[in-house]
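Re: your question from the hallway

Yes, I did run it. Sequences:
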Amino acid sequence: MPEKNELMEKVVSLCKRRGFIFPSSEIYGGIGGFWDYGPLGAELKRNVREAWWQDMVQGHDDTTPPPGMPSPYAMVGIETSIVMHPQVWKASGHYDLFQDLLIDCRRCKARFRADQLAASQCPEKPSKRPGEHTTCDLTPPREFNLMFKTYVGALVDPESEAYLRPETAQGMFVNFRNVLATARVKLPFGIAQIGKSFRNEIAPRYFTYRSREFEQMEIEFFCHPEESRLWYEYWRDRRFRWYVSLGLSEERLRLREHSPEELSHYSCGTADVEYAFPFLPEGEFGELEGIAHRGDFDLRSHMEGKLVRRGDELVVETGPDGKPRHPGSGKDLSYFDEETKGRLIPHVIEPSAGVDRSLLAFICEAYAEDAVPDESGVPQPRVVLKLHPRLAPVKAAVFPLIRRDGMPETALEIYRELKRVWNVAYDDRGSIGRRYRRQDESGTPFCITVDGQTQEDGTVTVRDRDTTVQERVPIVELMAYLRERLAM
RNA sequence: GCGGGUAUAGCUCAAUGGUAGAGCCCUGGCCUUCCAAGCCAGAAACGCGGGUUCGAUUCCCGCUACCCGCUCCA
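Structure:
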């Protein structure tokens, strides 16, 4: 296998060459932090999303919990708008955190909030404030706005300002009552969503890893406060195993609990699922998903208004007039518990995963270089994407060994039959060896070849991507053969 | 956002102050009975904008993108 740095270059090159990922707007020079998915990338990405939706939502059995699940629960999916009422982001706390005026020191590289400059220290001379030490070289206050701003309606004025969502999560919180009222769910239950989010990252970096437009797969799981710790641990462990089940090796994966200092002001427990991406220094990991215990922070925020921590409590932040600085909806988002006949504000466990980051990890993990013996038995190098069959963009390719003697006709019949169920490819160009290699680079798990024997006994060869081993399979059994091995 | 580097074909690279070559890939044809075969033909590039110059892909400046450090990451 190639060395780490080299590996990433090869992965990026393969992504471009085979049509997985392109720079956005490339013919105009590209635009930083945005990427396009090509024909194979779009299929791969759909498969990542669908694997998640299948495993977390559609395939969830709310009547019989498997071992390890604290209790049965319901799971429903929603899809909410990217542009939401601006008050959502004020109550959630995003607005204030994103609107900072910041001052940088060109010398010591420190960064200060403009409104807190008087309370800050110069890192090189802690007895003085930034700018007071002789070597300080401060920039003017500059506005950092990490949320994309837009205008609703054609009229451009401050009244019509809105934002592209920086996370999908708020869509679930603001629809908590709607789901409760319509989906016949009771605690505990989860709301799931997959969708695009946008953050004006200061430094997009590492290929698609830190993009300004990205896609999230998020669950907001609502439960009784006294059960929330149990559910937090359940989701943390389950989400880790999900990545393993789709092929990420446990050696490159890590489940990391945040230290108390690292926790957000509202969180009483957060763990990240992290992957040792090849572009990171040895020993460092990058986040794929965060599983956060958010307590009742979100529902309370949307009831009462933006919350801040005071001691051990979260209280509504007030303005100079004593009223909430950023009021909530004022709607009652509490839950009526039929058993205790009392109302409570559910706690929330939030497994929040990145589609693009997972996809990148799956590709990095799958990239392999090995050797396959040629017709003389001499090992020849090959590049192969050993993607999990559920993720592979193309599930199988069908070839006629040669372009005559009825082989193309038979191969096309098989191709059309399989095409009704899976994304399959047909290829009759070039030597058979080259066609196998092409599919290897695309990550296609199986290649089906019609040869001279097919006419005699109705069998074809099926070649396994990872082992290159072939076996003869009757055409009539192909569908069942693939169904079993594609695990779908 | 700061500092450094890079930018030539889809990919990997080369050459050049007088408008660019190769390998792989790709397309068409011939040939081909299982792991990158061969032959013929073909398509395809100097990131963008200025400046210097008779002439710039080449030298200079700016921009953009990517890479490497730092910073940031609700």
